[in-house]
User: Fold these one by one.
Assistant:
Number 1:
Amino acid sequence: MPHATASLASLVLLGLSLAPARYGPPLLCFEFEIGQAASIDESTITAADLIPKTLASLDASQDPLVHVETLRRATMAGMRLDREGAGGEVRLRYKLAHQLYDRALRAQLAGGSSAMPLLDIGYFVEAMNQSYGRADVSGLPYLDKVAEINPQDPTVHLVLAASWFMKDTSLFGKGGHERSRQEWGLAISLAPEGSLIRKAAVESAKYFLGEKTADALQKAPAVPPAPKK
């Protein structure tokens, strides 16, 4: 993908020590293992089913990792269906984004304490921004709020790491890869040994940052933030 290639090229030119980084946007190109948890099938789902089945999968789970993987699949399926023109005049991904925004807003108006709706819209917007159909808005404020509410949640730090990885460009300014590296360190340090989120954090760090950087993050993990009072 052109913007991913450009970002990675700028990384090399800046001489940052993240090589060997891989091609492909990390929010889309790294599949999260979710075990036996139910999700959608990105390769077979139809335009009519994409939104209702995605929302049903989100409603059925309280695991942030399942939410992230479900929305990754939904983004990939939406890209396929939008290319085929199955969404009509309004792209399916924008329709799903509207639904996620609505759920997040309704949860806030109802005084809910769960940060999951904010994680959902934050991830999905950033995933759209890493695809060919940009959302033209940022999901980072939502993800930062989730990290403020649940500072010990490794999943949101992993999503922030993958989001910031693509932002070290002339468009977004410099420093994205340093923030990305910090967030990957938090995700690794906060994830329990042997868990699927720990596996995802370590393997994605190796894939996108390179073995050397990933090993360093495991040996000297970031200091976990203090619990929110």
Note: Residues 151-229 form one domain.
Number 2:
Amino acid sequence: MMKKILLVIFLILPSLAFSNARPESKYDFPKIEITDINGNIVNPIKEKGNYLVSFWASWCTSCVTEMKNFIATEKQMNIKGVQLILINVDRNPKAIKKFFKKHKLPENTLTYRANMYDALQQFETTGLPITVAVKDKVVISKYIFLSMPWQSPKLIDNIVQPFKD
């Protein structure tokens, strides 16, 4: 019975998350406590700037593909004036290093941490990964990419378009 409940949850939650893909209107980036890997409170999102902020977890299967895409397109996004920020929501910071090693991701990739429940509640979503576009501390778009191939130049152009508006 438990397996059936879990199966239903995993089938329904992603579709609910995708239904929230765009915010009704622009709003200030929520006040979420963000820390570095050592637990020090930081504020990686400055008053001025273009950011694509991805919330992820090591146990999230869709996050694996998203992380690889995120890292592969970082240079292209930076050229277009968009800084990528990764925020992990695992309870155990050791899970981050294990995740990067297991999936052969660069260990020097800068990632931050936040409380999962705060992040999901603030962005009114029920699933991960979630990526938000932030311009000058204002959320201008919310995306649930799941396993989309970011390397497509057309998709990259579509992602950075809200920053130009």
Note: Residues 51 and 134 are 5 Å apart (CA to CA).
Number 3:
Amino acid sequence: MPLEFPDAMPQAFADAWMARDARALAWLFAPDADFVNVVGIWWHGRDRIEAAHHHGLTRYFAHSRLTPGRVEQRQLGPDAAVVRCRYRLSGQTTEAGDTAAPRSTMMIFVMQRSPEGWHCVAAQNTDIHPGAETHEAAPEGLRQRPVRKGAPPTGENLADKNNRN
């Protein structure tokens, strides 16, 4: 489903998510698109993007709510744009069957215009970890390293004190 404008992607993605419609979500992407999820799994092609989202949307995201927040677009030319969106995800089901705490993510969509309209050619989703500067590998897995006092400015704090989107 091509879009009229690139910055329509975040809402269209959320609408398909909320409808639990992995096919509609996948059709926002070009046939040869890439998608990297929050844990670094890299799906190549619309069919793989659909299958992966169908799996999640019918299981651990079946009762979730995805709410888009701040959206920014950077035009790279007449037929290409990068769109960023901060999302709030709530209602995810844990492995134990409980409801997980809400979390915020940042998605980046690389959009390309075709004669039919705009499609996403690449997307990456990143969890926002308030107060973290980076991750460190440890024997038990990744752990967050807190922001160090006196560290150089790293840009906007994507998880501000109000944890707004």
Note: Strands lie at 29-36, 42-44, 65-77, 80-90, 103-114, 117-127, 132-138, 141-146.
